[in-house]
C-alpha cells in the first residue's frame, strides 16, 4: 500500500448519500465486509482496522429518483492487500449471487458491482508495480478479460469473512462535465499528475507514479449537469496530503486558479468544476 501513505496524496475516505441506511448498512457489512466504527440514526462510519474510517454513509432527509447522465460518482474503489484476498472475495460474491463485471487493467485486476442505490463499487488488487509499463510518464492500462481460473486458484472458497485489516480506499472515479478546466483544477490546484488520458473522454491522475488515485470521465455527456442534492450518490471524498504545509500550499494554489475553498475545522472544502465536493485534509502523524 506504498501509494496510499506519505509522501503521496491519495483518497482516504468517501462519503455516500443513501436512500435507506438500514438496507445499505446490511449490504456493506454482509456483502462487502466492512465493520461499523460509529453509528447514529442517520449516519454510519465503516472501518477495516477498527481505528479509522474509509467509507461513511449519510441518510438522505428526503429521496428523489436518481437522475441519469449527471456528474458525480462513477465508482469508488476498495484496494485489497493481496491477490488471494481478491480471489476469496470473488468466491464470496458468487455465493451471494451478486452480479459483477470484471477487467484485467494490466496494472490491477478488478471486479465491479453496485450497492442498493446503484452507487458503483470496484474491489481490486494491484499487480506488482515492477510489472507496470510506463511510456513518456504515462502508464499503460487496458480492459482485458481476467484469468479467472488463475485468480481463483490462489484463493479458498469460503475463506472470506471481512475486509482485511490493511484494506484502503484505492481510488475514486468521477463523472465530470468536461476535461479541460477539470485537468487544470486537479493538476495546478490539487497537485496531481496526469498518468493516462483518452482524448476528451477520460483522464487518470495520481501522485507518486500510482496508476491512478482519481479517474475522471465525460461518459455521461459533455456539459452533464451536477447530481441533484436529494439523489443517492456521492456526498464528498477526502484527499489526504502529507502535512499541514503541503495542504496550505494546495489551498493557495486552488485559490490562485480562481476556485473557491473554505476552512472547515482543521480541513478545507472545495468543489471541482463539475461540483464534486472534496475535503482537503492532512496526515498529522
In short:
This protein has about 280 residues and is an alpha+beta fold. It is about 20% helix and about 35% strand.
Characteristic key phrases:
285 residues, alpha+beta, 2,3-Dihydroxybiphenyl 1,2-Dioxygenase, domain 1, eight-stranded mixed β-sheet, 5 helices, globular, Glyas_Bleomycin-R_OHBP_Dase, Glyas_Fos-R_dOase_dom
How many runs of DSSP E, i.e. beta strands? 18
CATH class: Alpha Beta
Number of helices: 5
- The unreliable regions are none
First-last Cα distance: 17 Å
Rg from alpha-carbon coordinates: 18 Å
How are helices and strands ordered from N to C?
A: EHEEEEHEEEEEHEHEEEEHEEE
The pLDDT mean sits at 97
Instruction: Write down the overall geometry.
Output: globular
Proportion in helices: 10-25%
Q: Topology of this protein?
A:
Elements lengths: L9 E9 L2 H12 L2 E5 L3 E5 L5 E7 L12 E9 L2 H13 L5 E4 L3 E7 L5 E7 L7 E2 L2 E2 L8 H5 L15 E8 L4 H10 L3 E6 L3 E5 L7 E4 L15 E9 L2 H13 L4 E4 L2 E5 L5 E6 L3
Parallel strand pairs: 1-4, 5-8, 11-14, 15-18
Antiparallel strand pairs: 1-15, 2-3, 3-4, 5-11, 6-7, 7-8, 9-10, 12-13, 13-14, 16-17, 17-18
Model description:
- This protein is α+β, with helices and mostly antiparallel strands and 285 residues long.
- It has one domain: 2,3-Dihydroxybiphenyl 1,2-Dioxygenase, domain 1.
- The protein is 19% helix and 36% strand.
- The chain has helices spanning 21-32, 83-95, 148-152, 180-189, 244-256, and strands spanning 10-18, 35-39, 43-47, 53-59, 72-80, 101-104, 108-114, 120-126, 134-135, 138-139, 168-175, 193-198, 202-206, 214-217, 233-241, 261-264, 267-271, 277-282.
- The chain has an eight-stranded mixed sheet. An eight-stranded mixed sheet has the order 6-7-8-5-11-14-13-12, covered by helices on one side. A two-stranded antiparallel sheet has the order 9-10.
- The radius of gyration is 18 Å and the shape is globular.
- The two termini are 17 Å apart.
- The mean pLDDT is 97.
Amino acid at each position: 500500500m506504498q501509494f496510499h501513505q506519505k509522501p503521496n496524496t491519495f483518497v482516504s475516505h468517501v462519503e455516500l448519500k443513501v436512500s435507506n441506511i438500514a438496507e445499505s448498512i446490511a449490504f456493506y457489512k454482509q456483502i462487502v465486509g466492512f465493520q461499523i466504527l460509529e453509528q447514529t440514526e442517520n449516519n454510519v462510519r465503516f472501518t477495516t482496522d477498527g481505528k479509522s474510517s474509509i467509507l461513511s454513509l449519510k441518510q438522505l432527509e428526503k429521496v428523489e429518483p436518481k437522475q441519469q447522465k449527471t456528474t458525480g460518482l462513477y465508482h469508488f474503489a476498495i484496494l485489497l492487500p493481496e491477490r488471494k484476498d481478491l480471489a476469496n472475495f470473488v468466491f464470496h460474491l458468487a455465493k451471494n449471487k451478486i452480479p459483477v463485471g470484471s477487467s484485467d487493467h494490466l496494472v490491477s485486476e478488478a471486479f465491479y458491482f453496485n450497492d442498493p442505490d446503484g452507487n458503483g463499487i470496484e474491489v481490486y488488487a494491484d499487480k506488482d508495480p515492477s510489472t507496470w509499463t510506463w511510456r513518456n510518464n504515462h502508464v499503460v492500462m487496458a480492459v482485458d478479460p481476467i484469468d479467472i481460473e488463475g485468480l481463483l486458484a490462489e484463493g479458498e472458497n469460503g475463506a472470506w469473512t471481512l475486509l482485511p485489516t490493511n484494506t484502503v480506499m484505492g481510488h475514486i472515479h468521477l463523472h465530470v462535465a468536461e476535461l479541460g478546466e477539470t485537468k487544470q483544477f486537479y493538476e495546478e490546484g490539487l497537485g496531481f499528475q496526469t498518468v493516462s488520458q483518452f482524448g476528451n473522454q477520460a483522464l487518470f491522475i495520481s501522485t507518486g507514479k500510482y496508476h491512478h488515485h482519481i479517474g475522471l470521465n465525460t461518459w455521461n455527456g459533455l456539459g452533464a449537469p451536477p447530481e441533484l442534492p436529494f439523489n443517492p450518490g456521492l456526498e464528498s471524498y477526502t484527499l489526504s496530503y502529507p502535512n499541514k504545509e503541503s495542504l496550505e500550499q494546495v489551498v493557495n494554489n486552488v485559490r490562485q486558479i480562481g476556485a473557491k475553498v473554505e476552512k472547515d475545522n482543521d480541513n478545507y472544502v472545495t468543489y471541482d468544476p463539475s461540483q464534486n465536493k472534496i475535503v482537503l485534509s492532512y496526515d498529522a502523524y
